[in-house]
What does this fold into?
Amino acid sequence: MAGKDDKHKRENAIQRFFRETIGELRKVHWPTWPEARRLTIIVIIVLIFMALFLGLVDWGANQLLILAIGA
It folds into this structure.
């Protein structure tokens, strides 16, 4: 009898999980296409800036290491 109750509880937990997940997704504020496009452009600009910055830091550290080693 206890095994049957455990199976019933597990099925209800899975169903409850999906029901609550769908409910939460309905509450999400989804961006409009112009908002998504603008945010994507911002992310790409920040990505390019960070890549250039980290590349410059890497090059500078490399030059300092070469200077320190004297190679």
In short: The first helix runs from residue 2 to 27. The chain has two domains: 1-30, 31-71. The two ends are 78 Å apart (CA to CA).
